[in-house]
Amino acid sequence: MRKIIVALKRKNVNNAGTKAKNDIEYFLAKDGFEKLDIDLNDIDCLDFVHSSLDNSESKMIVVQYGGVALPIIKKILRCIKKIPNSKVILILHDVESLRSFKSNKFSFLEKIKSKLEINIFNSVDILIVHNEVMKKKLLLIGVKSRMESIEIFDYFNSNIVLPRENVKNNKICFAGELSKSKFLLDFNTKKYELDLFGPNPAEKYGEGVSYLGEYKSSELPEHLNQSYGLVWDGTSLETCEGFVGKYLMYNNPHKTSLYLSCGLPVIIWDQAAIAKFVDKYNLGFTIGTLNNLDKFMSTITDDEYFKIKKNCMEMSYKIREGFFIRDAVVRSIKRLQ
């Protein structure tokens, strides 16, 4: 059986989304997947896909979904599905039908996009989704393809030295696109420090909040020497609100993988889908609001922290070796054979 991962890219594009996809390509290469690069700026890319894969040998083809216009990914998948003896595994990164979801109400344009997205999901042999919550929600909105859960995205990180288990400070880090995390504008802390990393910071933040710059995803882990990583989003400290906040109820934020790859315990919204993973492996603290963060943090004993820290250190090795995506792909292939 020939194992292939199709890499859909545009030249000279570099962002966190690209990091997640590149990591999956790297990890699957370790398991014998050959990479087929497709430049989306090449108008002949579809013919290239077909000519490269069209033979009688059985093929397991992995495609990553997210960051590509729906009509383009639809055409590419349609082309791949025509190849004899091929099975398609689609790895989901972002799901617009869930990102835009709000109380069962969609605008006309959102309905059209959602229908197209669901049709794309139903055109492949199996989906690798973020978690069981996402899987159940996709079933409810009409996805009929088989699904496997990845649990958490892996994070390739070869250049850092993991912090010592017995080190603890009063600092929390938050990494991401800062302009969309409006809750940061209201964040204040007296007992702890919040260090921010990422593009588009505000001109001013509250007490205890410091902006420490923007780094490439490969360099950022070297600067995460805090004791905790924060997973929160949206407009409010009270709860995760707005489109980006509510999306945490379904997706696996890549920043969670970043923190855990560095061995950092996470502080996460208790209604986030990935909070179940954090609780399952005792990797941090789930909270309902940030309004009482100082009080909550003061209740964490050193013994409790270092026990969780040890768990995070052990989990970091799995995440940095691609355990979760490799396992999800193996499970998917078994179901298709």
TrEMBL record:
This is Beta-1,6-galactofuranosyltransferase. The lineage of its organism: Bacteria, Bacillati, Bacillota, Bacilli, Lactobacillales. Residues 172-330 form the Glucosyltransferase 3-like C-terminal domain. SUPFAM superfamilies: UDP-Glycosyltransferase/glycogen phosphorylase (SSF53756). Residues 3-149 form the Glucosyltransferase 3-like N-terminal domain. Keywords: Transferase.
